[in-house]
């Protein structure tokens, strides 16, 4: 009898064994969730308090590092070079900023990770996929899960963690605000003046050719020509030539006095010779294209067009201001001279300029 029963159950046993083998051979079989392991901080309140103090310490170090970042920016000069192994000779300011900001960000991240691994709930929960539009039951469950997670995280109950986290997160953005100061020194009045500002009626500056660095005479400027000039105090060999010429460059044209429409502009010239800034008032490109018949100059970058016979006003393009003009006359030797700076700031608009 027992032998018959064994034989009857044999197909069922073979089916069960074959199913187990098939499941074992399937590389995509769902292994399920591993059994939950209880952490020490879950059962030992002293361990939980110790972990809380460790996280708070990391957040506090982050706050101190942010304060050190700001203090370093104020205390160290950018030109101070020190030897630091193994980096070699580096800027003390850059090194201090990098170290302090790195520590501030690292401690926030490390504190958050340590908080999550030791104090927040680590029970894994599996949930079935649901439609994109959640049902009312799902929404209620999400809200309940969020409230449960917030309660289990201890954010409301563990005030030391919450306050130090808020403090570190509030201070870190100050690093970015301080870095805005590194956009450059404040311009003060530098944008309003050029190298021609040194010229006065008592001590005028000669206009010299940018090609020969020789003084220019009124007779050198012929109708239809475009001549580029700079102040006699500037030399192409000078160390700051590129910086200075970006504001001091002048273009000279000669227009028949009766063709000059703007009287103040004509009075700033000499016998039809007019001196305008070579720097476009849109984004600061050098202007070099001149049309003799219309007295228009064109900026090659964005096609802003200026009428030199009408005070260099803008007649086309994105430029917002006329080209500044330089008042000129001649000295006893017939050299063209300037007695002051341009009549307006050179180049593109900026905050202080309307």
From TrEMBL:
Q: Output the superkingdom of the source species.
A: Bacteria
Skewed-composition ranges (Basic and acidic residues): 10-27
- Chief subcellular site? membrane
Q: Does the keyword Cytoplasm apply?
A: no
Q: Which Gene Ontology cellular component annotation is one that this UniProt entry carries?
A: plasma membrane
Q: Name one Pfam family in it.
A: QcrA_N
Q: Where are the transmembrane segments?
A: 55-75, 95-116
Region called Disordered, residue ranges = 1-37
Its placement in the membrane is given as: Multi-pass membrane protein
The Rieske domain is annotated at 273-337
Q: Could you tell me which CDD domains the record lists for this protein?
A: Rieske
**Record's function text:** Iron-sulfur subunit of the cytochrome bc1 complex, an essential component of the respiratory electron transport chain required for ATP synthesis. The bc1 complex catalyzes the oxidation of menaquinol and the reduction of cytochrome c in the respiratory chain. The bc1 complex operates through a Q-cycle mechanism that couples electron transfer to generation of the proton gradient that drives ATP synthesis.
PANTHER family to which the protein is assigned, alphabetical: CYTOCHROME B-C1 COMPLEX SUBUNIT RIESKE, MITOCHONDRIAL
The protein in question is named Cytochrome bc1 complex Rieske iron-sulfur subunit
Lineage, highest ranks first: Bacteria, Bacillati, Actinomycetota, Actinomycetes, Kitasatosporales
């Amino acid at each position: 009898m027992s032998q018959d029963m064994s034989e009857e159950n044999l197909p069922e046993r073979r089916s069960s064994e074959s199913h187990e083998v098939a499941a074992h051979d399937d590389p995509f079989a769902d292994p399920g969730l591993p059994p939950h392991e209880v952490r020490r901080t879950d059962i030992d309140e002293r361990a939980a308090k110790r972990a809380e103090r460790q996280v708070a310490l990391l957040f506090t170090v982050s706050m101190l590092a942010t304060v050190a970042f700001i203090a370093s920016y104020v205390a160290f000069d950018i030109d101070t070079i020190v030897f630091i192994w193994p980096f070699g000779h580096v800027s003390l300011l850059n090194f201090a900023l990098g170290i302090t900001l790195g520590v501030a960000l690292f401690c926030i991240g490390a504190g958050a990770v340590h908080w999550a691994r030791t104090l927040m709930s680590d029970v894994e929960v599996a949930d079935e996929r649901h439609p994109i539009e959640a049902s009312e039951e799902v929404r209620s469950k999400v809200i309940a899960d969020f409230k449960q997670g917030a309660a289990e995280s201890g954010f409301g109950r563990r005030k030391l963690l919450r306050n130090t986290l808020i403090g570190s997160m509030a201070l870190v953005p100050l690093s970015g605000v301080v870095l805005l100061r590194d956009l450059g020194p404040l311009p003060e009045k530098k944008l309003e003046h050029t190298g021609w500002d040194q010229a006065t009626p008592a001590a005028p500056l000669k206009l010299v050719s940018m090609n020969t660095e020789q003084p220019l005479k009124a007779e050198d400027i012929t109708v239809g020509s475009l001549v580029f000039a700079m102040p006699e105090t500037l030399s192409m060999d000078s160390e700051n030539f590129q910086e200075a010429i970006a504001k001091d460059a002048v273009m000279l044209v000669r227009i028949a006095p009766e063709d000059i429409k703007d009287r103040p502009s004509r009075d700033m010239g000499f016998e039809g010779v007019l001196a305008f800034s070579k720097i476009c008032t849109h984004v600061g490109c050098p202007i070099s294209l001149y049309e003799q018949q219309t007295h228009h100059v064109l900026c090659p970058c964005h096609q802003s067009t200026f009428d030199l016979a009408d005070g260099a006003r803008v007649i086309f393009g994105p430029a917002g201001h006329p080209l500044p003009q330089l008042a000129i006359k001649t000295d006893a030797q017939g050299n063209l001279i300037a007695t002051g700076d341009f009549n307006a700031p050179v180049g593109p608009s900026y905050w202080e300029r309307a």
